[in-house]
Design a protein that fits this description.
- By secondary structure, the protein is of the alpha/beta class.
- Helix content is 45%, strand content 15%.
- The protein contains 16 helices and 20 strands.
- The strands form 5 sheets. A 9-stranded mixed sheet has the order 13-12-14-11-10-2-15-16-19, with helices on both faces. The chain has a 5-stranded antiparallel sheet with strand order 7-6-5-4-8.
């Protein structure tokens, strides 16, 4: 929980469909997307011999990555928009490369140079980009990184529009969709508690009907069809425009559509629409609506910024994140001990560095004792003592610095081991080193609660109050 949420004060619960109610098999979807895109890239002039004979590492990308189309790099940032990890193709960028390109000036991620990979749907874009950059440069080709990424995006979009991807999914739903046995019971529990449910999806009606029938059609005898679970169904919503623009709400009547009018009817199929009209037609204030979605921008960020809707984000990766976090408890504890030791050593280092300065000043200010103008100075035992003390302090400083360097190596090694538990290339989805990742920062900022799947709500009362942990600033720790 990121903030308090009282389900007892929620009247309407809305759901996105893709990657929210419908959980996709990510590996199969990525393979389908890549296969459907390669032929279209070849048609644009890319070498068939390369595209059809390279390995596409489906496990390479994750959400929250940033494409730098100028240099062909894929980057991961922390919450302060500082790049901490990066790859060129499948080659990891060195710390020096990252610092020289990204850490000495502010990165403006909202410019045309950069593109966020913020949905599971978009992971195949990063996979294709990294693999093709590697393959073309291995041949010695000069790569226009921005043009390549634009071509990949356009070809993937074309594969969705012309049915290459959608038709394959609809014709083999068990291959691409995980049918959650607890989904119907979860929706039924919410309805039984007096909640009204609505479906708000960008998918077209034909695809929505096929998908939702597969997920819920025969799940419970109390519901003759999936349409009986929902009080309102809105398709082709075009989020995030739904939250920002005043597109009219239409109602489907066979093959035609006409403007909708209040009140909205149960069983009708609505298309398009906008936030203000839907709230008005439902006669509900935004703070009484909970919307559940997976898209950090289209579902969560925009609904939170443009409305008072409460938000629940579905993060399919959370199950793996939790398992990895539990597996790393000992590593985290070890890191904590080493970091405490580093603070102790840094305190000692500052003490001895100041000690050297103090001794040097005493030596400079001490009077020199002489026997006369023509005689060499006598040995001044006080100064000799101070110089010996300063030499010992300098040796101690060098010893402490060596210990700090060794500690940094140990901490770096453990942090790499922790990263490998989460993701072989990028580490945790929601964290980056000691900070929250850029993606995690958006989740924390805009999602009231988050979980791995809708059916996890079945474990809670429909009147549950989710309470966020106390938010502490550094001086309170």
């Amino acid at each position: 929980m990121n903030r308090h949420l009282r389900l007892g004060q929620i009247d309407w619960v809305g759901f996105d469909m893709d990657y929210t109610l419908a959980i996709y098999n990510q590996t199969e979807m990525d393979a389908l997307s890549i296969q459907g895109t390669m032929g279209k890239l070849v048609a644009r002039g890319y070498p068939e011999s390369v595209l059809h004979h390279i390995s596409y590492p489906m496990h390479f990308p994750m959400r929250g990555l940033l494409i730098d189309k100028r240099h062909g790099h894929i980057l991961k940032m922390d919450r302060f928009k500082v790049v901490q990890k990066g790859y060129h193709g499948l080659r990891e960028l060195s710390k020096e490369e990252i610092r020289s390109l990204y850490q000495h000036r502010k990165i403006r991620t909202n410019t045309g140079r950069y593109h966020w990979i913020d949905t599971l749907y978009a992971l195949s874009e990063a996979t294709l980009y990294a693999a093709i950059v590697d393959a073309l440069e291995a041949r010695g080709d000069e790569v226009d990184y921005a043009r390549l990424f634009a071509d990949i995006r356009e070809c993937i979009d074309e594969a969705h529009r012309d049915g290459t991807i959608v038709d394959a999914v609809m014709n083999d739903l068990p291959r691409f969709i995980e049918r959650d046995p607890n989904l119907a019971s979860t929706l039924h529990k919410l309805r039984s508690a007096g909640k009204k449910l609505f479906l708000l999806t960008n998918s077209r009606w034909e695809y929505t009907e096929r998908m939702m029938t597969y997920l819920l059609g025969d799940a419970m005898p109390e519901y003759p069809s999936f349409r009986h679970y929902f009080d309102v169904i809105i398709v082709a919503a075009q989020k995030p425009a739904f939250f920002q623009e005043r597109r009219p709400l239409m109602v489907r009547d066979g093959d035609s559509v006409r403007p909708a009018a209040p009140p909205l009817e149960r069983g009708a199929i609505y298309e398009g629409g906008n936030l203000l009209d839907v709230e008005r037609f439902l006669n509900v204030s935004g703070d009484r609506v909970l919307y559940v979605g997976d898209h950090i921008y289209g579902d969560i960020l925009r609904s939170k910024k443009e409305s008072a809707w409460r938000t629940a984000m579905i993060i399919q990766e959370m199950e793996a994140e939790v398992i990895a976090h539990e597996a790393c408890r000992d590593h985290h504890a070890q890191c904590g001990l080493l970091e405490n030791r580093r603070e102790e050593l840094e305190d000692q280092l500052r003490f001895y560095q100041q000690r050297i300065k103090d001794l040097s000043r005493q030596i400079e200010e001490s009077p020199r004792v002489t026997n006369g103008a023509s005689s060499p100075p006598r040995v001044d035992y006080a100064i000799s003592f101070l110089e010996a003390e300063r030499a010992r302090a300098k040796r101690t400083v060098e010893r402490i610095r060596g210990q700090l360097r060794a500690l940094d190596v140990d901490i770096g090694r453990i942090e790499r081991e922790i990263d490998r538990h989460f993701h072989p290339y990028w580490g945790s989805l929601l964290k980056e080193a000691n900070e929250v990742s850029s993606f995690g920062d958006q989740v924390e900022e805009y999602a009231c609660i988050y979980t791995s799947r809708v059916s996890n709500l079945l474990a809670y009362s429909p009147l549950q109050t989710f309470r966020s942990p106390r938010d502490l600033m550094p001086h309170e720790l």
